[in-house]
Amino acid sequence: MAAVSTTSSLPRHVAIIMDGNGRWARKRHLPRQAGHVAGVATVREVVRTATDVGLSNLTLYAFSSENWKRPQTEVGALMGLFRLYFRNDLAEMVERGVRVRVIGNRSRVADDIRQMIEEMEKKTVANTGLNLTFAFDYGGQEEIVAAARELARAAKESRLDPETITPELFATRLFTSGLPEPDLVIRTSGERRLSNFLLWQSAYAELLFVDTLWPDFTPALFLEAMGQFANRERRFGSLPEAVA
Ligand code: IPE
Ligand code: IPE
Ligand code: MG
């Protein structure tokens, strides 16, 4: 296993598409919900590992804007699990100095969950450890369109000169404003797509697709993924240092 020995070799921001809960359950002849329950245990372990190694930013894709299309029973079970997780894990996160944020479209989420999210963000706002962001009812295209709409409105009302719109300005209108862009995006379960996750922000992210299903994703595999990142050469359109 490639160990992550120093914080200097850690990516600044890791984002994870937690996929494969349903297949994990199916393999065991269990209902899909059982896979989501197992997936929450993995979330807990991965967050602990992130704080243990001193990672600065971790973003987890928990529910996409498209996941509402799933059967009501599954959506209901997922919402129930978010409630449990937000309620039961807040204390440990506070203790570990984690700052929690939730990005996504809050208007579609049940009132009590919205309140929990607000409370969690408020209770952890001053924490200086891991920045933990949940993408929840999140869609990258929706996020980009919302930013464009806001800028267009400002221009229409003569509060903004369109010529001053730069990528940097645009990024300040995204949910992730203030967070560095992800250096590493991991997707579990063998699927090789982004499924509307951090489309703008992942422009230069390293993508790592692992075959493991999310409930089977262990702290060791997480560390190995970060170790692999340390060995990748990032160019950002330029040339490697040795050639330049
Ligand atoms: C990921 O697992 C969890 C969510 C999308 C909420 P899936 O539920 O997508 O599991 P598979 O892809 O069907 O195995
Ligand atoms: C992406 O997984 C969303 C989350 C992991 C929360 P999906 O399982 O919903 O994505 P598709 O449908 O396979 O693209
Ligand atoms: Mg899936």
Topology of this structure?
Blueprint (H helix, E strand, L loop, with lengths): L12 E5 L3 H7 L4 H22 L3 E8 L7 H24 L3 E5 L7 H14 L6 E8 L1 H17 L10 H5 L12 E4 L18 E4 L9 H12 L14
Parallel strand pairs: 1-2, 1-5, 2-4, 3-4, 5-6
Helix pairs in contact: 1-2, 2-3, 3-4
Features:
single chain, globular, Undecaprenyl pyrophosphate synthetase, 244 residues, alpha/beta, 6 strands, six-stranded parallel β-sheet, binds 3-methylbut-3-enyl trihydrogen diphosphate, binds magnesium ion
Beta-strand percentage range: 5-15%
Instruction: Please describe the biggest sheet, giving its number of strands, its sense, and whether it closes into a barrel.
Output: 6 strands, parallel
| CATH secondary-structure class | Alpha Beta
Low-confidence stretches: none
**How many domains is the backbone divided into?**
1
Walk me through what this model shows.
41% of the residues lie in helices and 14% in strands. It is an alpha/beta fold. It has one domain (12-139, 181-230): Decaprenyl diphosphate synthase-like (Undecaprenyl pyrophosphate synthetase), CATH 3.40.1180.10. It has a 6-stranded parallel sheet with strand order 3-4-2-1-5-6, sandwiched between helices. Helix 4 (111-124) links the parallel strand 3 (99-103) and strand 4. Helix 1 (21-27) packs across helix 2. One 3-methylbut-3-enyl trihydrogen diphosphate binds at residues 18-23, 63, 67, 78, 189. The site of one 3-methylbut-3-enyl trihydrogen diphosphate has 10 residues, from helix 1.
